[in-house]
Design brief:
Layout: H1 14-24, H2 30-45, H3 50-64, H4 72-114, H5 119-128, E1 136-143, H6 153-166, E2 172-176, E3 179-185, H7 191-202, E4 207-210, E5 214-215, H8 216-237, E6 243-245, H9 251-256, H10 259-270, H11 281-292, H12 297-304, H13 308-322, H14 329-344
Parallel strand pairs: 4-6
Antiparallel strand pairs: 1-3, 1-4, 1-5, 2-3
Helix pairs in contact: 1-3, 1-4, 2-4, 3-4, 6-7, 10-14, 11-12, 11-14, 12-13
């Protein structure tokens, strides 16, 4: 915006104040400062740029300068006071606008992820934040050791990286319950993996889960819940992958869909391990390491910092107690499924 494009209303009374203050050497009165602040607020609310507004004040000062009889330092002090008060009002209006925008954004995210708003109205509000809810979307959730809030260091760092790489692209980055969230169009396949990479770094090695792409407003909620469930599964199963994809973990919700049936399988298959010296924990840990090592005894022994002979002894003990042999392919699937179920149900810490 050029100086001459600034409406004269934002310079109202400026020449009179400048002339009086410069000639007498007095400071602006409280009423004069308040009037400049009010004009600054109005200019910010109208969308005028501060740089152009300051330029307009300087141009107006130059125009009246030849008529000022005051010393230069007095005149400059007067200009400084006026512009300082004007800028203070402008910045205050901007801070209020930012807070209002953050509040509206937070309310929208809460309504979107909890389905608390009319879908038509929700879609209208989504356009304001760059989302088109008629399209498919996927959600990624990043969780670190700290709790993250809107505008804090990690969210800003990730947002800047996303903007630099993808521009607008209808991507919404926000926070929810101390986690970082990224909502992206389902056909933008590079966005969420890049978000995961940046979030992993910004959160000091935090974990990121990516939900599947689903259509419509309900699809955002479904993808978000999938990502949360993936984080929960990772914690229960001790998965150490920094990036989890809900699509790769679908077998686990299937296994626990009938929770009682899974609890029965765990109790009937692994229950006898509780009678072992030291309880079921060490033997359950042995089964977990054995299956995760591809049923290779030497690799499992290394995971557990055991000798192969000690690991073999534990496997034999499991066979004796349960009647199922972990090294026998015909028994392996049942034992592995029960072992996964035990971790999902937190057995034996919690009796299924």
């Amino acid at each position: 915006m050029r100086d001459r494009d600034i409406p004269g209303e934002y310079l109202a009374g400026y020449e009179r104040i400048l002339t009086e203050v410069a000639s007498t050497g007095r400071r602006l009165t409280r009423d004069e400062i308040d009037s400049r602040r009010a004009l600054g607020e109005r200019a910010a609310e109208a969308g005028h740029g501060l740089r152009a507004l300051v330029g307009g004040h300087l141009s107006a000062a130059l125009a009246v300068w030849p008529r000022l009889s005051a010393p230069t330092d007095r005149a400059l002090a007067a200009v400084h006071q006026v512009i300082d008060a004007f800028a203070e009002g402008y910045e205050r209006a901007q801070r209020i606008a930012v807070r209002q925008e953050e509040a509206a954004r937070r309310e929208f995210i809460d309504d979107l992820l909890h389905g608390r708003s009319d879908l038509g109205r929700l879609a209208e509000r989504a356009e304001r934040f760059g989302l088109r809810l008629s399209h498919a979307h996927a959600v990624a959730v990043a969780q670190g050791t700290d709790s993250y809030e809107e505008g804090s260091g990690a969210p800003r760092q990730v947002e800047q990286a996303l903007l630099a790489r993808f521009g607008n692209h209808h991507v919404l980055l926000t926070t929810k319950d101390g986690r970082l969230l990224c909502i992206a169009p389902g056909n933008e396949n590079e966005v969420l993996p890049y978000f995961a990479k940046q979030a992993h770094a910004a959160t000091g090695g935090g974990r990121v889960a990516i939900g599947r792409s689903h259509p419509g407003p309900g699809g955002v909620v479904q993808s978000y819940e999938e990502a949360l469930n993936a984080l929960d599964l990772a914690g229960r199963l001790g998965l150490d992958d920094p990036v989890l994809r809900a699509a790769d973990l679908l077998v686990y919700p299937v296994l626990t869909r009938d929770r009682q049936a899974m609890a029965d399988l765990v109790h009937d298959t692994l229950g006898p391990l509780a009678t072992a010296r030291g309880g079921a924990g060490p033997l359950l840990e042995t089964l977990t390491a054995y299956f995760e090592s591809g049923c290779v005894a030497a690799a499992a022994a290394r995971r557990l910092s055991l000798s192969v002979r000690a690991l073999t002894y534990r496997l034999e003990r499991i066979h004796q107690l349960t009647g199922a042999d972990p090294t026998d392919p015909s028994h392996r699937y049942m034992l592995q499924t029960a072992t996964i179920g035990a971790r999902l149900l937190d057995w034996p810490a919690e009796r299924g």
